[in-house]
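Complex 504.
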Amino acid sequence: MANPLFDRLFARHFGSAAPFLHLPGGGRLSYGDFLTQAARFAGVIRTVGLEPGDRLAVQIYKSPEALAVYAACAITGVIFLPLNTAYAPAEVSYFLSDSGAALFLCDPSKLDSLTEVAAGAGAQIMTLGSSGDGSFAEAAKTEIAQFKVADRSEDDLAAFLYTSGTTGRSKGAMLSQRNLLSNAETLTDLWQFSERDVLLHALPIFHTHGLFVGTNVTLIAGGAMLFLPKFDVDQMVANMTRSTAMMGVPTFYTRLLDHPEFDADLTQHMRVFISGSAPMLSETHAQFQARTGHTVLERYGMTETNMNTSNPYSGQRKTGTVGLPLTGVELKICDPNTGQEVVQGKIGVIEVRGDNVFQGYWNMPEKTAEELRGNGFFITGDLAQMDTDGYVTIVGRGKDLIISGGFNIYPKELEMILDDQAGVLESAVIAVPHADMGEAALAILVRSGGGPDLDAIKAMMPQDVARFKHPRDYIVVDALPRNTMGKVQKNVMRDRYGDWFSKP
Ligand code: MLC
Ligand code: AMP
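Predicted structure with adenosine monophosphate bound:
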């Protein structure tokens, strides 16, 4: 039986006493023990009736057990669908129904609020807590830890990751085993990860960065992770000397730079610091270099494509760029209107093709066709230029998207809700620079009649929308700026309110 994802990420670690996860309290979990747990979880997945190709959705807090569910999906050939733990029940409901998830795992504390949601979507519900508690973990205790590995090929789907769109409706990006494996193997080689590495891991494991980059690279290299439940700057500093490598979003780096104990001594043994998911400011690069002597290695990726480009490990790291296309990734910079490649040095939209590029959006052939060309190139929506050495610099986004602390916020999703509120004629949500999060959402509301009741709006939002998406502030105006064609000019508002979050 073949199963490339299991064979290349997990199989050789079976029975190994080598450390896989170091825990902040000082405990550690070997590869062998981790896989034994995963094999038991695989048993439960089969016992409750899931077959290869079925979807298992999880909204659980980061823990070794949560990661073992990912491994259990690889063993059983079930498609892993991790959800942001911040999503509200209404959002979870959509993901479960849209994906047709057969099983949903949630934290025991959320069982009451999510039971109906799962039932409404036709999914079974079980619980898995961050200390290994819950009905799923209980059921696993009676399963035998045997490796009945499902027969799968590289073309089979391994994961769905939902990503919102400019229309406001989330789309399930279908990732095949080949998508994940090709990218992780390329990155392991490029960044020279080995069994000697300990990755300081504070990212969530429901997104590409923490799951497919951080975890898969570690598994392929046979290294270990210092597995923190979430980013906490004191914990990062406390665990830095136990690690050899770190991956993070730019907010991790700015917060570390604000910590008084973060200096060259603390980081001198570190092999590499990698940043991505959002642009790192030149001043952050410069401060990091001045403080630690390390040049942050910046790379660029997407949910739909895994990683596309990276600065080199050994060659020149050009700060302000996202580096060179990865081996096996074809990258073109194209005219957004014609799709033709622009002349070298000109700005255009990045298009990429390769084994890293996803298989399309689940049940959305029209959306897939809009972004994934028939010839295999994916239109990223990121605006960039390439220098004469082939390094790519991202200069902006063609898509209306806010990236806040590495999480995506789609203005359209918020605008649709805000437009419906009493006293609001229309709304625009824009990205405004924010010292901590890079960008934050600012809502501009056009008053109708007596105007909106902002307190009522703020009170209404949490039921439907995850908190990280909520606008950080609201402004009420008489009209939005429009061009002569009547189109709302978000660029004018971004200029006008650009210092909103930095004003004293
Ligand atoms: C938390 N909050 C955020 C937020 N994170 N608000 C806006 N943007 C964010 N990213 C809000 C919470 O809702 C809460 O609001 C308050 O901040 C405190 O919550 P917290 O959980 O204590 O926040 P904190 O620990 O400070 O989290 C910030 C963070 C985290 C930056 C550490 O967001 C994070 O880990 N981001 C990483 C995201 C990531 O992995 N991206 C990769 C995507 S993959 P309130 O109102 O309740 O106080 C991808 C492809 C690629 O992009 O290239 O990698
Ligand atoms: P997501 O859809 O969450 O995967 O976010 C992907 C988007 O993050 C990309 O399309 C880019 O806009 C952005 N991104 C990722 N890495 C970088 C980077 N290093 N610099 C600038 N933007 C980035």
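The chain is about 30% helix and 25% strand.
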